[in-house]
Design goal:
By secondary structure, the chain is an all-alpha fold. It is built from 10 helices and no strands.
Length: 255
């Protein structure tokens, strides 16, 4: 994975890549969604073509959700890096060396392909190219969309310019960030049950229709082979999709 430096903008995918395997899995899920919708709402091969639009929309939604999960993992990794860097400064390391020397520990914890290891590599490469650490942190925080990294970059820049006690500033900043992340993690765990309820409710209409199809074959046949039936099923599909998107947004609210 390449890391752009020397003033170039970084893409989020430089640090949060979506692998080919993940893209294939998302594509398979999207195709299955289209086929399921076609079976329950239309049972017509021609309907697959317009339903493909929904499949593409679902792919984008799932990809966005995947990136959000990767961001949460990156925040957790950043928290551990802050703790290690703070300990390193107490041992006498400079702020830059405290972060860079944490690479082996981060590699042992999360693997060399983890987001945090790529970030440390970017810091090392930036120092070799005489790029300020605060600039690198700010760039990575903005591109990743992780507020804690951007906030730390601002604190680091101010402290460095004012020649303050960097060890003390780092320790206090690390403590605040760690406490914030831990609090949000606890709240997310408490709200995780809502996500399970949302998934069950989204699947319930299909389970009911499947049960009726199995116990009363041909019950919905009139809806699939008449213009009024197709129109009615289309309206039902639109209502279901609106409810699905709404439910996803409700359970995705950041705390």
């Amino acid at each position: 994975m390449g890391i752009k430096l020397k003033g170039q903008d970084c893409d989020t995918n430089d640090f949060l890549p979506v692998t080919i395997k993940e893209k294939r899995r998302l594509a398979v899920k999207s195709v299955l969604v289209v086929l399921v919708l076609d079976y329950f709402f239309y049972q017509s091969f021609l309907a697959v073509i317009p339903l493909s639009v929904i499949g593409c929309f679902y792919y984008r939604m799932e990809k966005g959700a995947l990136l959000e999960r990767k961001k949460e993992i990156a925040r957790e990794q950043f928290k551990e890096l802050m703790l290690l860097a703070s300990t390193g400064q107490k041992a006498g390391y400079s702020p830059e060396n405290a972060f860079i020397s944490s690479y082996q520990d981060m590699k042992a914890l999360y693997g060399k392909e983890s987001t945090i290891c790529h970030m440390i590599q970017a810091l090392r490469s930036g120092r070799e190219n005489n790029i300020a650490f605060s600039r690198l942190w700010k760039q990575m925080g903005n591109q990743l969309g992780i507020a804690e990294i951007s906030e730390f970059a601002s604190v680091y820049e101010i402290s460095h310019q004012c020649s303050g006690n960097m060890a003390s500033v780092m320790e206090k900043t690390a403590s605040v960030i760690v406490h914030k992340i831990e609090t949000e993690k606890e709240i997310s765990i408490l709200l995780s049950a809502r996500g399970l309820e949302q998934k069950i409710m989204n699947a319930m209409p299909f389970l009911i229709m499947l049960y009726i199809n199995l116990t009363s074959p041909g019950y919905f046949r009139g809806l699939y082979h008449s213009m009024s039936g197709v129109l009615l099923m289309t309206i039902c599909l639109m209502i279901y999709l609106a409810a699905y998107v709404w439910s996803v947004r409700i359970v995705s609210i950041r705390v």
